[in-house]
Amino acid sequence: MTLVRTHAPRRRARLGIRLASAALAGATVVALAPATAMAAEPAGAAGAEARPGGVDARAELEAFIADGSSTAAFAEVRQNGRRVWRGAAGTSDLATGQPVRPDGRFRIGSVTKSFVSTVVLQLVAEGRLRLDDPVERHLPGLVPNGGAISVRQLLNHTSGLFDYLEDPRFFYRDEASLRDWVRGSSRWQDYRPEQLVAVGVAHPPYFAPGQGWHYSNTNYVLAGMLIRKLTGKSWQSEVERRIVKPLHLDDTVFPRSETGVRGPHTHAYAKLAEGPADITRFNPTVADAAGNGISTPADLNRFHAALFGGRLLRPAEQAELKRTVPTGSGHSFYGLGVAQADFGCGPLWGHDGGLPGWGTLLFGTADGKRQVALSYNPYAGADPSGLDAAVVNVAVKTLCGGAAAAPADVAAGLSALRGAGR
User: Fold this and answer.
1) Is 415 tagged catalytic?
2) Considering 110, 114, 295, 329, which one is annotated as catalytic?
3) Run of H or E including 371
4) Which of 4, 136, 196, 308 is most buried when burial is the number of CB atoms within 10 A of its CB?
């Protein structure tokens, strides 16, 4: 699969790091204004005027599609276990003009990591492994220097392992190579996790284990392999058995090689000179345990509430989940599959994610009492400059209750998201 290369190395687009909305370097694109529709569903008096916490969230969703760089956006805000607002803006399918449904499914990208790390922590609680076990103990011979890399370092991105998605074969460099991916066979290629890890370990590590922080999707492909080794079942099966079914996340799936998205969903698009190309379908094995999940805002919020409300982990593993390391941004820290970010109103917890044509935000309070889940569909190949601020505005306004996001809060939020792995 070919992904995006941008000029600035730190801003390279890969799975979970600006992949959903990165600009093409030097590409010629045509501005496209999608047909727009707006739907809001307040939940009783608490959702009156679509103002969760006194905020006009409807306007924030409209900001995602106002400049034509995104076709759709929808979100849900929950507090104390109940929905206080949800809404949608834009068009789910440009071919039919179908408006966006606020309960639709979408690809969640790196938010998948939070599900995978939760299962690993449950296995720790069961005594099947320890966080400080070396990778070599459970996956012998797979990772060079695996005896010096711990399970913990995989989950908090301090292993130093090269991110396989930074390998040139996974980039598109310009509009021509984007078009090649859209039309070519690599979009449908089936990958085994061993192949993805082999790509990552073929490159020199970023640093010695534990001597820095660098977001690497290779870490979570390995985490998925650990789950299989310890349980005898795929990481998808274990996530479904341990999290999805108990929480009744009926619209959440973690596909194997199925290329489509079942049920109501928005479509993803690449922006090409000849017009938008539908890229909703592709082989998700390229993402594996690093980011192949599909969900809805409601399901993601319920997962966040259960995870941070202490329903999925024992107190000891809950503490490990939130034991963070600095990411290099003064506003964000990374735990075990979750990020802590300060958007200007104190620390919030969650993750964001992206795939070509898809972006996701899931953040909430540390006690699991309030959260926002957002999905949006930026054009792959479009200029993302306006979308980043819109993402942060939603987080700031719905979770912090501010009537307007101060420039300093937007800057802090952008720094936090980039530091946390976008």
Assistant:
1) no
2) 110
3) strand 370-378
4) 4
